[in-house]
Design a protein that fits this description.
Elements lengths: L10 H10 L7 H9 L6 E4 L10 H22 L3 E7 L6 E7 L16 E2 L5 H13 L9 H4 L11 H5 L12 H9 L7 H6 L20 H14 L3 H11 L15 H4 L6 E3 L39 E2 L1 H12 L6 H8 L1 E3 L5 E2 L8 E3 L4 E5 L2 E10 L2 E8 L4 E7 L1 E3 L6 H13 L2
Parallel strand pairs: 5-14
Antiparallel strand pairs: 1-3, 2-3, 2-13, 4-6, 7-8, 7-9, 9-10, 10-11, 11-12, 12-13
Length: 433
């Protein structure tokens, strides 16, 4: 699979991983190994911010054991040093917060805890969708407006609607798979790129005409354009819109968004992130033997600029805030009903055509920055956002009323990425009677 940025990374792989769930549990031996390695971590219970005395130790111990076991098994294979998890059981609680491992590879790196942040990657595409839909509800734009109406400087894409940007059916190439971006990561990791520079890497100019696609094709360029449209419609920077309409309105106290380098106080809370992906980029030749990104292998990207991600997935958060936000999204507490229906409307990732639900024929659907797929037990909403050195995965088990988020600190190859197994193990621990 071609190397791809942000949420695209493992949407295909995640679907496969869910189908393979329940096949690789290893039991108590791994827990003992975790203890020997000093990976076992404390668990904290919350019910609307307060410890819930009625929660049984048995359930919480099972969640902690699942997290410790996953880390002990996957650490040498995925290059991770720590993992955080948050389990939301609904308004009545209790919620479960668990941690395992350390924030980095140095001997003196502290353990992962409530204060630790991870990059959200494309799970923060939901921020862009929320901003656009809130602006539509205010009458400032329509998701059927075109790029040409708001950004006439890109005439090649003038007829593409905002809706098609958000559901990945625009046909617009993906800037984050270009040699320009890879060279920026490798040669100028501290450089702050502008949104216009990102778009220019994909915009046809006669010398870099990248393939135009039909149907569904994951492209981060879509969300950079959406962020610029939101800014144009309001006269406010996208960063300010995210702060006002998402972070402040929904009490996300450990969530941050910057189009460039993050301030030292945020970096100080961010886990170290390790790049371990050897895959070639999408726009490298099909017989590619060596990725443009090879010089980055093993690098700690914690202090690198995330300006290359921006509205396509540049936010930083913790598992508690991601869970709080996504539950608000799925429970319809972010936008009015009309916009909620638009938000959840899906296209098949096989055909790009609208579907009302996933099925064996169409096992995965992409909505506006949201994904639904088939997992054991039926369909569920989930998203794995992956950015250089980090992964954030949430799964919304609507039937059970359970939302689980896990975060960790590496970006491995597709085949090594088994973060979904951590979610499945936690869900099994919660459901076990």
């Amino acid at each position: 699979m071609a190397f791809c940025q942000l949420g695209q990374y493992f949407i295909p792989d995640l679907s496969r991983s869910f189908q393979e769930w329940l096949t690789s549990r290893r039991g108590g031996a791994i827990m003992e190994l975790a203890r020997c390695r000093g990976l076992a971590a404390a668990i904290v219970l919350f019910a609307t911010g307060t410890a819930f005395a009625g929660e049984t130790p048995t359930q919480t111990q099972r969640v902690q054991k699942a997290l410790d076991a996953w880390l002990a098994e996957r650490s040498p294979l995925e290059g991770v040093t720590g993992i955080a998890a948050y389990v939301s059981l609904g308004a009545s609680g209790p919620n479960i917060e668990a941690f395992a491992g350390k924030t980095g590879r140095a001997d003196d790196d502290p353990p992962v805890d409530q204060n630790t942040l991870f990059a959200m990657g494309s799970t923060s595409k939901s921020f862009a969708a929320a901003v656009i839909l809130k602006l539509e509800a205010q009458g400032l734009l329509s998701i059927d407006d075109t790029v040409g109406k708001w950004l006439p400087q890109y005439p090649a894409w003038g007829g593409v609607s905002i809706r098609r940007l958000l559901d990945m059916t625009s046909g617009i190439p993906n800037y984050s798979e270009t040699e320009f971006i890879s060279r920026s990561w490798v040669e100028q990791p501290k450089r702050d790129l502008t949104a216009e520079e990102l778009i220019a890497a994909a915009y046809p100019d006669g010398s870099n005409n990248l393939p135009v696609t039909e149907g569904y094709h994951y492209s981060n360029t879509n969300y950079i354009l959406a962020g610029l449209i939101a800014a144009k419609a309001t006269g406010k920077p996208y960063q300010e819109l995210v702060r006002e309409l998402v972070i402040e309105q929904h009490g996300l106290h450990s969530t941050f968004y910057s189009p460039g380098a993050y301030p030292p106080d945020v970096i100080a809370r961010l886990a170290h992130g390790y790049f371990e992906n050897t895959a070639c980029a999408e726009y490298q030749p099909s017989d590619c033997k060596e990725s443009w990104n090879k010089p980055m292998i093993g690098r700690d990207v914690r202090e690198d600029s995330t300006s290359w991600a921006q509205a396509a997935g540049g936010a930083i958060s913790n598992a508690r805030d991601v869970t709080r936000w996504m539950r608000a999204v799925f429970e319809g507490r972010v936008v009015p009903p009309k916009q909620q229906a638009e938000w959840m409307s899906m296209v098949s990732t096989k055909t790009g055509e609208p579907i009302t639900q996933v099925s064996e024929e169409h096992p995965q659907g992409f909505a506006l920055g949201l994904v639904q797929g088939m997992i054991p037990g039926g369909p569920a909403w989930f998203y794995q956002g992956m950015t250089l050195g980090y992964r954030t995965l949430y799964v919304w088990y609507e039937k059970d009323g359970i939302l689980i988020t896990v975060q960790t600190n590496s970006q491995p190859d597709d085949d090594a990425n088994k973060l979904s197994e951590a979610v499945e193990a936690i869900h099994s621990a919660i459901k076990t009677q």
